Amino acid sequence: MSRRVLVAVALAVGAWCAVAAAAPASRGGHVTADEPQYLLSAISLGEDRDLDISDERAEGRYRTFHRADLPVQELVRDDGSAVSPHDPLLPALLALPVLAGGWVGAKLALAALAGALAAALVWTAVVRLGVPTRHAVVGVLAFAAGAPLAFYGTQVYPELPAALAVTLAVAALTGPMRGRGVVLLGACVVALPWLAVKYAPVAAVLAALGAGRLARRGAWRSLAALGGAWAVAAVAFAAAHLAWYGGLTPYAAGDHFTGGELTVMGTDPDYAGRAIRLVGLLVDRDFGLAAWHPAYLLAVPALAVLVRDRPRWWPVVVLPCLAGWLTATFVALTMHGWWWPGRQVVVVLPCVVLAVTWFASARPGVRAVLAGLGVLGASVYAWLVAQAVSGDLTIVVTFEDVSHPLARAWRAVLPDYRDRDVTDWVLHGAWLAAIAAAVAGALVPGLRRRAHARSRWQGRPARIGTGVTSA
Asked: Residue 308 half-sphere exposure, CB side, CA atoms within 13 Å?
């Protein structure tokens, strides 16, 4: 794997993402919603070496990136201190960039991480999954240059660093799992909950996959050392959160979780109603992945074929993706909010990118479609940024006002799950049928192939219609 290729990919994606730093998030500032909280915590860590943001708030330090009054999220304690109800690893990562360049420094640091993520994905696809270099570069760039990955390359959220941690964990798990690989996996699993406790299910799946790999190899010393390190890290996580936030999660320090920190998942969750997100996270008109980048529709046949063909590494890609998708579906309070669409699943999008890149690498027709959709996704991203910089819209609050003609036409055939009128339910049914058909179309050839092989092995002729067809 050429280092020049990886450096070129990292620089190109980092620069491409960095242009969105100039796009306003809302009419009142360059950042909005939870982003100011992360920046205030980064300022506090960089200057005061603590998480108490009461002095930064009192001094109005947020005025440089958020002109309007900043809503209060944190509880004010008896001693007057206040800790933002967000995990501290992202502010820690951004402390030096914020000290050096303020909110712009934070956004540029995240853009650099977006470049590193793209390079790590290319390396993993080539070295671990066996994808030809040129196909890996095209596949990764098709996603990295469009939403939501490109937008989270400058939005001050833990999503992009978490996606990088998952990518590195996948790279470790698909390798020999010795020495540095074990250390890398251990660090990534520990880092994910420190970025946000909502990533704990994905971290748990990655940890289980790593433990299983070591157990099958009989590497009991490595497994014991890794398990012991994770146990110590879990105790440290709990102790630090109790000391800093007053609970096992940072939500205990929030002023709007009056019913307890677990109410972050909802006070009366309707899990049956949330099940609609299984499809909505992909095709919702405003907050679905495919609304802003139709290439994500290729994830459906790609993952189905991956499960069907089952290369040795398939669980490492599929299971974390499933964990993240189910968390976004049933645990997250909502899939709609004051953020760029797709936020709840960005952490596992590297798994989707790797699956689609692998799927397309052996299928020229799919490669052509992926490249074309990649250009479309990049054009939508560039169009949105240009509109935002010109003052026509804002990246977070009014992104639906995009004037890109293809994006507007495409989104018209997607259901709006916030509206849910008769038309939306009809569209929902149509997309559900299309997804089911895509999965069946991917799985049936494999079933026929296995049935044919079984019949030949047993010395009986295969039934008519059980011949091998292309995926």
From this structure: 22
Taking a C-beta distance cutoff of 8 angstroms, is the pair 91, 56 a contact?
no
CA angle (13, 17, 19) in 5-degree steps = 130
Transcribe 221-276 into DSSP letters.
HHHHHHHHHHHHHHHHHHHHHHHHHSSSSGGGGBTT-TT-GGGGG-SS--HHHHTT
Which one-letter DSSP state was computed for residue 459? T
3-state SS class at 52: strand
Helices H / strands E in the chain, number of each: 18, 0
**DSSP readout, 194-220?**
HH-GGGHHHHHHHHHHHHHHHHHHT-H
DSSP bridge pairs for 83: 52
Residue 448 has pLDDT above 60, yes or no: no
200, two tokens = 């704990």
Q: Are the CB atoms for 122 and 108 separated by under 8 Å?
A: no
Backbone angles phi, psi at 414, to 5 degrees: -105, 145
Tell me: the pLDDT tens digits for 213-239? 999 989 999 999 999 999 999 999 999
Judge if the upstream peptide bond of residue 250 is cis by omega within 30 degrees of 0.
Answer: no
Provide the β-strand partners of residue 82.
76
Q: Could you write out the DSSP letters of every residue in 298-359?
A: GHHHHHHHHHHH--TTHHHHHHHHHHHHHIIIIISS-S-SSS-TTGGGGGGHHHHHHHHHHH
Residue pLDDT, tens place only, 76-125: 887 878 888 999 999 999 999 999 999 999 999 999 999 999 999 999 99
CA atoms of 331 and 271, how far apart (whole Å) = 9
Nearest CA-CA partner of 113 in 91, 93, 128: 93
Contacts within 8 Å (CB) and 24+ apart, 431-439: 431/279, 431/283, 432/279, 435/279, 435/282, 435/300, 438/300, 438/301, 438/304, 439/300, 439/301, 439/304
Is residue 421 classed as helix, strand or coil in its secondary structure? coil
Q: What is the pLDDT of residues 19-38, one digit of tens each?
A: 999 998 888 788 988 899 99
Report the alpha-carbon distance of residue 68 to residue 24 in Å, rounded.
Answer: 13
d(CA 65, CA 341): 22
| pTM given for the model | 0.90
**Dist. CA 285–CA 167, nearest whole Å:** 28
Report, in angstroms and rounded to the nearest whole number, the Rg of the chain calculated over CA atoms: 23
Phi and psi torsions of 385, nearest 5°: -65, -45
Written as six digits, the tokens of 460 are 């009986």
Contacts for 319-323: CB closer than 8 Å, 24+ residues apart: 319/205, 319/209, 320/166, 320/169, 320/170, 320/202, 320/205, 320/206, 320/209, 320/348, 320/351, 321/348, 321/351, 321/352, 321/355, 322/205, 323/201, 323/202, 323/204, 323/205, 323/348
Give the three-class secondary structure for 76: strand
